Amino acid sequence: MRKTTPVSEIMTKNVIALTRSDNLDRAEMLFKRHNIRHIPVVTQESIIGMLSYSDLLRISFADATNDERNVDAVVYNMFTIEQVMTKNLVSVTSDTSIKEVAEILAQKEFHALPVVDDSILVGIVTTTDLIKYLLKQI
């Protein structure tokens, strides 16, 4: 493993994102449809927050049922994306080393980092991306 390998080699580039005008029903649908756990919230191409599936779980019963009916509609209508998302984000650039990303994720209490170049969201890297990368090295 090279210590200087950039995160751009393992990050997800085709990022699924939300806007502040989206609702939490849409967020839940995207989490489940794409089997993901983190969705950046953007204004145009700039990131303004991050919504995680665990953020939804804190306010709902989203994972308690596989029922296709929207059992959380009332709860979701009480909150906006902006009220639930994490706002003070730590981000990295696409040339940040994988080692640096691993150090940040090991020290912090989150499991995903937005990758931002010149104020534009270009990707997202998760702990799962790091684990997959490490498994390829063995």
From TrEMBL:
Keywords attached to this entry: CBS domain
Matches recorded under Pfam families: CBS
InterPro entries found in the cross-reference section: CBS_dom (IPR000644), CBS_dom_sf (IPR046342), Diverse_CBS-Domain (IPR051257)
SMART domains assigned to the protein according to its UniProt record, in alphabetical order: CBS (SM00116)
Domain named CBS: residues: 11-68, 85-138
The UniProt record lists the keyword Isomerase: no
PANTHER family in the cross-refs: CBS DOMAIN-CONTAINING PROTEIN, CBS DOMAIN-CONTAINING PROTEIN CBSX3, MITOCHONDRIAL
This protein's name: CBS domain-containing protein
Annotated source species: Hwangdonia lutea
